[in-house]
Design brief:
Distance between the termini: 72 Å
Shape: globular
Oligomer: single chain
Helix content: 25-40%
Number of strands: 22
Number of helices: 13
CATH class of the largest domain: Alpha Beta
Number of domains: 3
Largest sheet: 7 strands, mixed
Structural class: alpha/beta
CATH architecture of the largest domain: 3-Layer(bba) Sandwich
CATH topology of the largest domain: FAD/NAD(P)-binding domain
Bound molecules: 1,4-dihydronicotinamide adenine dinucleotide
């Protein structure tokens, strides 16, 4: 077996892994990366963030062209859907971006191994016919869709987000299990393209973890768009029928549809890694256990084994994984690395988008933190009026005593971009007064952020 040596081997070429590899190479390490898939970029680029955003954009344009242009004085006649072309465009975007990661690996002189990586007892790693010895190994193997007892994800018409990115026909009726991020994003895509979409959610609210007021507002908006929400529904099974699928719900009648999309969360992916051989332990939820500096229990004086991204504790977000990738690369190469978990933004790419950073009102109340709140609706924002995007609002939560911003929540068009200013401000320890005093260009949606900051002190101008 050919034996290769590297300073660092990164297992998994998703956003956590490939960013870690690039940063380590920038810092002078001899780096290798391994992935079981031919296309680099992980779930995010291949079957997650990127293809879903491509379809969200296409389906949004389709819906706008059909229903929203006439009031602008634009007549377009018949609007037809070419789903094949839409999917082809999405596949083209994925191909370009995954190819781009390959080029970045070459540019940074990172060796790429294709195959499933497995630890050996001496902490070397086998990938196909190669055995790799590295001083440091970073596990960045990501996550995969999880299911419910009684639901077999391999059955036809019982789908995960991966299949729901590639339907060759718009389902007449799509049942979505779980009103989390994936359910709302992909549910929106297929509703816009003409499917009846029913979302079954176990809790009495959508988007658990998000600020409750924002989630309630968002639910009203999505329901108005045509998504049918059934809350308080504990799904207990799904099975294929002659014509489609049947979903069973505890204490309620079965529901039937053409297809069912299961999005009840994701689980860490460690299959085939042989973690036990290297002494790497998993926690009760199957995540790789890490301690200080992302170090796993498998680390020794000879080999440091680290883990980052979806496979460890924390939100399963590409940008969280990227930050951890940079931090661990810097720790390995220089002894210093940092990540601020309090300022990681969260975005749901529906229309309008839902974006947040920092604490929710519920979290502040639970922690007994006294806060002041400033809200500003997009209805009172000039740009929002001009572009027909008046739905939603900005809410800023600031510490009652110090005025330091503790959380920002935005429901609105472009919220995902607006939240960047808020995350940056929070990273610098800004007060709501700091945001309120900063000049925001007119007419922009960002003025609503400034106005919400002014509203913390009861001095918004336009309401
Ligand atoms: P999620 O954790 O966001 O939502 C799952 C939902 O399923 C919850 O509301 C839960 O209450 C519900 N549920 C669980 N068991 C149920 C049952 N028996 N019956 C009915 N409902 C049930 O999970 P999701 O949407 O699958 O996303 C997985 C991960 O992917 C998330 O952690 C998310 O962070 C990440 N992701 C992030 C995106 C983004 O940042 N825009 C986009 C897509 C995924």
């Amino acid at each position: 077996m050919p034996e290769q040596t590297h300073d660092l081997l990164v297992i998994g070429a998703g956003p956590g892994g490939y960013v870690c590899a690039i940063r380590a190479a920038q810092l002078g390490l001899n780096v290798a990366i391994a992935d079981k898939e031919k296309a680099l970029g992980g779930t995010c680029l291949r079957v997650g963030c990127i293809p879903s955003k491509a379809l969200l954009e296409s389906s949004h344009l389709y819906e706008q062209t059909k229903h929203e242009l006439e009031s602008h004085g634009i007549k377009v006649g018949n609007v037809d859907l070419d789903l094949g072309a839409m999917r082809k465009r999405k596949d083209g975007v994925v191909k370009q971006l995954t190819g781009g990661i390959g080029s970045l690996m070459k540019k940074n002189k990172i060796a790429v191994y294709h195959g499933t990586a497995a630890f050996n007892e001496d902490k070397s790693v086998s990938i196909g016919k190669d055995t790799i010895k590295a001083k440091h190994v970073v596990i960045a193997t990501g996550s995969e869709p999880s299911s419910l007892p009684g639901i077999d994800l391999s059955a036809d018409r019982i789908d995960t987000s991966t299949e729901a990115l590639d339907y060759d026909k718009v389902p007449d009726h799509l049942i979505v299990i779980g009103a989390g991020v994936i359910g709302l994003e992909l549910g929106s895509v297929w509703r816009r393209l003409g499917a009846k979409v029913t979302v079954l959610e176990y809790l009495d609210r959508i988007m658990p973890g998000l600020d409750a007021e924002m989630a309630k507002e968002a639910q009203k908006v999505f329901a108005k768009q045509g998504i049918d929400f059934k809350l308080g529904c504990k799904v207990t099974g799904a099975e294929k029928t002659k014509k489609g699928v049947k979903v069973s719900i505890e204490g309620q009648d079965d529901v039937e549809a053409d297809r069912v999309l299961v999005c009840v969360g994701r689980k860490p992916h460690t299959a085939g890694l042989n973690c036990d051989k290297a002494g790497v332990e998993l926690d009760e939820r199957g995540r790789v256990k890490i301690g200080e500096h992302f170090k796993t229990t498998g680390s020794s004086d000879e080999v440091g084994i680290y883990a980052i991204g979806d496979v460890v504790v924390g939100p399963m977000l590409a940008h969280k994984a990227e930050e951890e990738g940079v931090a661990v690369a810097e720790l390995i190469a220089t002894g210093h690395g940092h990540i601020d978990y309090d300022t990681i933004p969260n975005i749901v790419y529906t229309e309008p988008e839902v974006a947040s950073v920092g604490k929710t009102e519920e979290e502040l109340k639970d922690a007994g933190v006294k806060y002041r709140k400033g809200k500003f609706p997009f209805l009172a924002n000039g740009r929002a009026k001009a572009i027909d995007a008046t739905t939603g609002m900005v809410k800023i939560l600031a510490d009652e005593a110090t005025d330091r911003v503790l959380g920002v929540h935005i429901l609105g068009h472009g919220a995902g971009d607006l939240i960047a200013e808020c995350a940056t401000s929070m990273a610098f320890g800004a007060s709501s007064e700091d945001i309120a005093r900063a000049c925001h260009a007119h007419p922009t949606m960002s003025e609503a952020v400034k106005e919400a900051a002014l509203a913390v002190d009861g001095r918004a101008i336009h309401i």
